[in-house]
């Protein structure tokens, strides 16, 4: 996962990347101490985020000119669209309905992140857009696998264990690998090496916005303290 052009971008991001994948929100998910109010805030905004993420992949499809590339992007789009009902069913366990989440106002962090990705997509080419998407796609896989392999992660009795297991599951990881393969091929075809500095900037900004998304959840818990 850390090889190739993606690996170069990840390494270039340095401490910013480490802060993203080891954020206190993630660590509290791992040990089960995350306040429920923080997780509910995250779930609501993640639902709204996924809608715009699907829009970004629909835009990505339009950026391609070959059927294999279009099919690869469509598979990712379909995976997100199919994930939304599953997300709603999971959120029901936390007292959240799809109708209620859809009626919520997007947090500034959600707006900043999703509109940044869409702006990159509209202004740039497929490689620019996929670069903005990869910190989420591959980052969640790294987090999921990392937590599952961490001896300090608590799975028994942890209400967040299903979330952790989902992002470390073979089905999710296979989808991530398909996205990485598409990304590596695209970087080779679209002059990724010669555009590295600009693409690294996009990748770093998306990583920063991902980190802010975690912090949004923690900030909600601080604003409305609630026992888990």
From TrEMBL:
CDD domains: TenA_C_ScTHI20-like
N-terminal signal peptide: none
Segments passing through the bilayer: none
Alphabetical list of Gene3D superfamilies matching this protein: Heme oxygenase-like
Taxonomic source organism: Erwinia aeris
Protein name, UniProt field: TenA family protein
A Pfam family it matches: TENA_THI-4
Thiaminase-2/PQQC domain ranges (all copies): 14-219
Domain of life: Bacteria
């Amino acid at each position: 996962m850390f090889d190739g052009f993606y690996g170069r971008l990840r390494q270039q991001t340095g401490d910013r990347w480490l802060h993203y994948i080891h954020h206190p929100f993630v660590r509290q998910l791992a040990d089960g101490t995350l306040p429920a109010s923080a997780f509910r805030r995250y779930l609501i905004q993640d639902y709204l985020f996924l809608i715009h993420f699907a829009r970004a992949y629909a835009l990505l499809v339009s950026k391609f000119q070959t059927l294999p590339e279009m099919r690869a992007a469509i598979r990712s789009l379909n995976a997100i669209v199919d994930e939304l009902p599953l997300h709603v069913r999971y959120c029901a366990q936390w007292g959240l309905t799809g109708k209620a989440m859809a009626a919520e106002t997007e947090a500034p962090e959600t707006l900043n992140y999703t509109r940044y990705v869409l702006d990159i997509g509209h202004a740039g080419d497929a490689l620019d857009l996929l670069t903005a998407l990869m910190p989420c796609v591959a980052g969640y896989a790294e987090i999921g696998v990392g937590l599952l392999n961490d001896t300090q992660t608590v799975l028994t009795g942890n209400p967040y264990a299903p979330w952790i297991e989902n992002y470390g599951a073979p089905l999710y990881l296979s989808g991530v690998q398909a996205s990485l393969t598409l990304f590596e091929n695209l970087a080779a075809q679209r002059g990724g090496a010669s555009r590295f500095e600009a693409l690294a900037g996009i990748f770093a900004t998306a990583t920063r916005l991902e980190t802010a998304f975690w912090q949004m959840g923690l900030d909600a818990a601080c604003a409305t303290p609630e026992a888990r």
